[in-house]
Every structure is written in C-alpha cells, then in structure tokens.
C-alpha cells in the first residue's frame, strides 16, 4: 500500500463518507480559486460555498487550451511538459517531482495530466483498496499487462512504485505474451478488457494454460458476452475497474458483485445528460463530470468524460458506504486483427497505436479506421506543426505494428480540420470497417 491504507473507510457510515467528500471538495475549490488564474476567473471567489452543480464544466479542449492558467504549481507549463514527453525518456519524472501521463480517451483528443509523487501514492492506495476487495493481497502473484506507452497512466501513476518492473504490455506479440503468462502463472491477471477477451479465447482454444482466481479489466466496459467468455475460460467472475487518466480510479466492482463502487472519498462523479443536467438513477447518462479531490498541482473540477454511465438504483450490495454504478458503457476502443509475421492473425490493442502517437505533441486529436485497403489515420494538428508530421507518424505507426508482431498494412495519415462526431453519435477512436 506504499504506507497508505484506505480500506478502513469501507467500514465507515454513508454520512462519514459524504462529510469527508464535502470537506475535500470545499478545500479543493478554495485552493483552485486562490492559486489558479483560470479557476479564479471562471469559478469566482465564492465557489467553495456554491453547489457544485452550479459551477461550469471543464472540457478536455479547454483543459489543453488554458493549461498554463489552470495549473496551480508554477513549475508546470504545457510547452515544457510536451517537450518532456517528446524527449528521449518520457517515462522519467518531470523535474524529479511529477509523473506526467497522456490520454486520448474515447475522443482521440490529446490531454496531459501531471501528478505529484504524493498524489500518485494516493491513487495507488485507491487501486490497492479496489484490489483488496477483489481478493488481491500483498502476497498475491499478480501480472499486469499495461500500455506500451511510457506516458500511460498504467506506467506513470498506477505502476510507478519504486523498483517496479515494466513487465508485459499490450504491444507484446501474442505468442510471447502467452508464453510469459504460462511461465508466470498469475493468481491475478490485470489488463484492458479488449486484450482480456483475446486471452480468454486463447485459454478456451487450449493455447494458454493459466488458472487465475482474479481477473481485473479496465479501459472498456464489460459486456455480458465478455463476462461469459471469462467464466468459460477461467471459471471466475470478471472484475471491472473504471479508470481515467484524469482520475485514475473512479469505481470498481468485485467478483461477488458486478455493480461498481464509486471511490467517493477521492472523486465526485456526476452522471448527466447532454445539457449537463443530472439523470435519474437507472437511466444511462450522456457523459460524466468528474471532480478529482486528490490532485492539487493540476486541479480538475467538473471535468467532462464522454462515457455513458448508469447509476445503480439499488443499495450497495456489499453493504459498504459507497454509491454504485450499474454499468459503464460507451468506451469504444476496438481490437484490430491484422495478419501476423509468425502467426496467421495478430490482435492489436488500440494502446499500441496510441503509444505511437504519444511522442507527437503536434497531434491534438486522432482516429483510425482499418479496412481491406489498410490503416487510415486522420489527425488534427496544432498551429505551426511541421509539414513532415504525417510522414513521421506513418513510419512510427508501421514500426509499432511490426513490433507487436503484425505485418503492417498500408498506412496513410491525413490532416483534417476537426474530428468531432455528428450530433448524437459516439466517437470511435479505433474502428474496423
């Protein structure tokens, strides 16, 4: 737990949880309006005394456009962070003091989030609490398959314990991944849901031979079909972790209960419609507004995530004090299946493509479509971007696919002015046509 244990709060009353949440929210708002020029202007001096629902929403586009005015630590500047991420070692701490993670999420729009080491420690403790509920103890043999990008949340924050090994990633070619898992024989397997479905199929086909008692998935929602496949492969109930780079643990389930318990001591989660109005329990929302109660260097208040989430109308089935989510849908990443160098077909997780884009700070937003003619990449770049960005990105994507064991298809990269979906449509970051 890194010296910080939060599981004692599972025994609190509901009133104790809400009292802590309100106190932390008030302190966050006071800090943000005192230290951030953006929040001082947008929220005003009376924000700590106003209902949260009356405060404005922060979009990813605004976060990046106003980055230097939003942050509260004078050492943080967007240009410096982008140079750090584009450097030779983006995985090292920035200035020896910050963990820097990037995200595209379901919108393909680049965002940068900086965590102090203390903030990263808190988020690891929240992850440990979720793991403990699922049955992961300090002695459990755990295999984590994270993103290949050194700037991904799984590498920068959740996996940044001193001396922690890099381990396997979603870009590890499937035969090597299977061999490594067979050797490690994990008691707990943690990976993205899309990759987990591929591994479940490998187990059922007799090519993978592991017996995990705990299987934890993140990045995408768990469909009923995936839950059935995990049960068929390993005889266990899958655990879901609802995470975002901007708030590393939002909610998590357990093998006994599929509802996801919201980590209300570290986040405020508002499920709203298209006009930012609360939706009733049991009704899917159009998006989620997240207020991160931990981070102070880069406060995120009512930050918009374009996920469709449903709040459970039922009491917490485990009897703990946390509100629950019935489902997390709309996180629309997609596994690509490409011809392999050594095997007929290779599954390629979207994080392989995202890791190839990460070193290009000029790329503000991107999306991929794979069809019979190749991999079609559309990108939005910032002002003054070098003319060779498409060519360099094309080469980087080809190299990333080859490193994952695939025979790279023809790759084209096209500059477009915008990638916003049509009204009412979900944005697909990676799509097979």
3D architecture notes:
It comes from Geodermatophilus sabuli. Keywords: Ligase. The protein is α/β, with parallel strands linked by helices and about 425 residues long. It has two domains: about 1-330, ANL, N-terminal domain (Rossmann fold, 3-Layer(aba) Sandwich), CATH 3.40.50; about 335-430, ANL, C-terminal domain (GMP Synthetase, Chain A, domain 3), CATH 3.30.300. Helices cover about 30% and strands about 25% of the residues. The protein has an eight-stranded mixed beta sheet with strand order 3-4-5-6-7-8-13-12. It has a four-stranded mixed beta sheet with strand order 18-17-16-19, with helices on one face. The longest helix is centred in the first third of the chain and has 22 residues, at about 15-35. The model is unreliable at about 160-165 and about 420-425 (pLDDT under 50).
Q: Determine the fraction of residues in helical runs and give it as a percent range.
A: 25-40%
Give the C-level CATH assignment of the largest domain. Alpha Beta
CATH topology type of the largest domain = Rossmann fold
What ranges have pLDDT less than 50 throughout 5 or more consecutive residues?
Answer: 160-166, 422-427
Strand content: 15-25%
Mean pLDDT: 89
Largest sheet: 8 strands, mixed
* Radius of gyration of CA atoms, rounded to a whole number: 21 Å
Strand arrangement, largest sheet? 3-4-5-6-7-8-13-12
The count of domains is: 2
Structural class: alpha/beta
Distance between the termini: 44 Å
Shape descriptor: globular
The total strand number stands at 19
The named CATH superfamily of the largest domain = ANL, N-terminal domain
How many DSSP H or I helices? 12
Judging by the overall fold, what is the CATH architecture of the largest domain?
A: 3-Layer(aba) Sandwich
């Amino acid at each position: 737990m890194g010296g910080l244990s939060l599981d004692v709060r599972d025994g609190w009353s509901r009133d104790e949880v809400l009292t802590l949440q309100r106190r932390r929210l008030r302190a966050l708002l006071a800090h943000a309006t005192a230290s951030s020029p953006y929040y001082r202007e947008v929220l005003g001096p009376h924000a700590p005394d106003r209902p949260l629902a009356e405060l404005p929403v922060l979009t990813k586009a605004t976060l990046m456009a106003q980055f230097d005015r939003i942050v509260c630590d004078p050492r943080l500047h967007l240009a410096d962070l982008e140079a750090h991420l584009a450097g030779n070692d983006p995985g090292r701490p920035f200035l020896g003091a910050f963990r820097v993670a990037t995200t595209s999420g379901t919108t393909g729009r680049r965002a940068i989030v900086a965590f102090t080491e203390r903030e990263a420690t808190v988020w690891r403790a929240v992850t440990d609490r979720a793991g403990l509920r699922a049955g992961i103890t300090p002695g459990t043999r755990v295999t984590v398959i994270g993103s290949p990008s050194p700037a991904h949340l799984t590498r920068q924050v959740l996996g940044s314990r001193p001396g922690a090994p890099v381990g396997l990633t979603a870009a590890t070619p499937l035969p090597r991944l299977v061999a490594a898992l067979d050797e490690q024989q994990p008691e707990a397997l943690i990976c993205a849901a899309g990759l987990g479905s591929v591994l479940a199929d490998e187990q059922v086909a007799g090519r993978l031979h592991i017996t995990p008692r705990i299987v934890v998935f993140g990045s995408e929602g768990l469909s009923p079909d995936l839950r059935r496949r995990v049960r068929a492969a390993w005889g266990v109930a899958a655990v879901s972790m609802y995470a975002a780079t901007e708030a590393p643990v939002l909610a998590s389930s357990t093998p006994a209960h599929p509802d996801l318990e919201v980590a209300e001591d570290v986040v405020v989660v508002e499920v709203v419609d298209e006009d930012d109005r609360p939706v009733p329990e049991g009704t899917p929302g159009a998006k989620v507004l997240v207020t991160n109660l931990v981070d102070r260097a880069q406060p995120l208040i009512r930050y918009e995530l374009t996920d469709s989430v449903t709040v459970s109308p039922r009491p917490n089935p485990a009897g703990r004090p946390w509100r629950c989510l019935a489902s997390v849908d709309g996180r629309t990443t997609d596994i690509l299946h490409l011809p392999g160098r050594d095997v007929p077909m290779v599954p390629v997780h979207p994080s392989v493509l995202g890791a190839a884009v990460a070193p290009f700070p000029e790329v503000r937003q991107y999306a991929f479509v794979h069809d019979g003619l190749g991999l079609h990449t559309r990108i939005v770049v910032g002002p003054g971007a070098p003319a060779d960005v498409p060519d360099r990105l094309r080469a980087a994507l080809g190299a990333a696919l080859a490193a994952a064991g695939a025979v790279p298809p023809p790759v084209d990269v096209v500059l477009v002015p915008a990638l916003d979906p049509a009204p009412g449509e979900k944005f697909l970051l990676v799509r097979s046509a």
